[in-house]
């Protein structure tokens, strides 16, 4: 039980299954162990043997997994012309999604390939397809806690200005139908940026030109209702550009961008920011810099890319803690504690 056996790295608990075979207690983690990470296995004195024997002393094992090895490189794109703008995201189970735009037969399309932790890469699929000549750019993707992916991108069709589109991927079902998430007159300038959290909510931001000025706009995604309507989130009637967005697990978001402001007879490119809170919406934007800035980034709530390492490890109390990543620094008490009986032993 959780009070008898603990398995964790840092403050994060590792889910595991328990099996008993003779004198061995076998712990099998539900997911692959992270590489280059210190893990801690603890057994309390509440652990009982088959005949009710109690463990005399608690056991604590500390070990660090080794690094993973790179596999041989393989092509995951579609046959055809050159590809650009590739991005990759991972979910917490080690699955991944790569998105990119690629020219095929003279037209630029958005493609994706899904990586399953247990089987590898699949086949490249069209995320957006249109018979009209158009140009796709800046694909961005995020996973939710259930392993579903949300993708946004910019798309220019014919002589029209650029628009922002989105599509959703569900493992086992595939891609939904692409949808336009902004219908404002004008055009998108530059890239679209995207952030999301485990419950499936997400926020997309970009620069939008309405024919007079360049604004920072945003749209909020709720998995229950879909995309909302576009909102202007900057506060000044002057050019605003290069937005970036980040979210915390509660769904709060911070957006930063650059905006030129007249100061002392000169133009100062200033960093501005605004905050989004669920149920409240966007706050009034405010400057966060005093001098010229270039390409500000929202650095809150960073996320580390986790590469799946090895196969699912088998962990045993008799120090056979292992994964295909390897293990170093394994430690244990100097005198191995034992049960009063012979049902389970730490040897």
Structure, described:
This protein is mostly beta strands and 347 residues long. It is 0% helix and 48% strand. The protein contains no helices and 28 strands. The protein has a 5-stranded antiparallel sheet with strand order 2-1-5-6-28, with no helix packed on it. Strands 7, 8, 9, 10 and 11 form a 5-stranded antiparallel sheet that branches. It is globular and about 80 Å long. The two termini are 21 Å apart. The C terminus is likely disordered.
Outline the biggest β-sheet.
5 strands, antiparallel
Mean pLDDT: 80
Shape field: globular
Rg calc: 26 Å
Helix content: under 10%
Strand content: over 45%
* Alpha-carbon distance between the two ends: 21 Å
Helix-strand pattern, N to C?
A: EEEEEEEEEEEEEEEEEEEEEEEEEEEE
Q: How many beta-strand elements?
A: 28
């Amino acid at each position: 039980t959780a009070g008898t056996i603990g398995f964790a790295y840092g403050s994060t608990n590792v889910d595991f299954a328990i099996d008993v075979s003779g004198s061995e207690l076998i712990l099998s983690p539900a997911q692959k162990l992270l590489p280059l990470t210190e893990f801690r296995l603890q057994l309390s004195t509440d652990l009982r043997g088959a005949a009710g024997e109690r463990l005399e002393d608690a056991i604590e094992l500390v070990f660090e997994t080794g690094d993973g090895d790179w596999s041989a490189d393989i092509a995951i794109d579609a046959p055809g012309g050159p590809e650009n703008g590739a991005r990759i995201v991972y979910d917490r189970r080690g699955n991944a999604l790569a998105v990119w735009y690629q020219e095929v037969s003279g037209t630029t399309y958005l493609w994706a390939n899904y990586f399953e932790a247990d089987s590898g890469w699949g086949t490249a699929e069209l995320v957006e397809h249109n018979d009209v000549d158009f140009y796709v750019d800046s694909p961005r993707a995020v996973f939710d806690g259930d392993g579903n992916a949300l993708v946004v991108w910019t798309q220019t069709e014919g002589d029209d200005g650029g628009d922002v589109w989105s599509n959703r991927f569900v493992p086992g079902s595939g891609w939904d139908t692409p949808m336009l998430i902004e219908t404002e007159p004008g055009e998108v300038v530059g890239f679209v940026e995207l952030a999301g959290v485990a419950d499936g909510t997400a926020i997309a931001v970009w620069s939008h030109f309405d024919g007079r000025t360049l604004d920072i706009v945003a749209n909020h995604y709720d998995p229950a209702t879909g995309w909302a309507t576009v909102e202007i989130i900057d506060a000044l009637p002057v050019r605003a550009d290069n937005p970036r967005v980040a979210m915390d697990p509660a769904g709060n978001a911070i957006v930063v961008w650059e905006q030129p402001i007249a100061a002392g007879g000169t133009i100062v490119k200033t960093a501005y920011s605004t905050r989004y809170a669920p149920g409240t919406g966007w706050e009034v934007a405010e400057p966060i810099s005093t001098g010229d800035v270039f390409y500000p980034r929202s650095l809150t709530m960073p996320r580390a890319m986790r590469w799946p390492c090895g196969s699912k490890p088998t962990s045993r109390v008799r120090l056979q803690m292992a994964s295909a990543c390897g293990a170093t620094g394994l430690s244990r008490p100097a005198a191995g504690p034992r049960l009063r009986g012979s049902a389970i032993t730490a040897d």
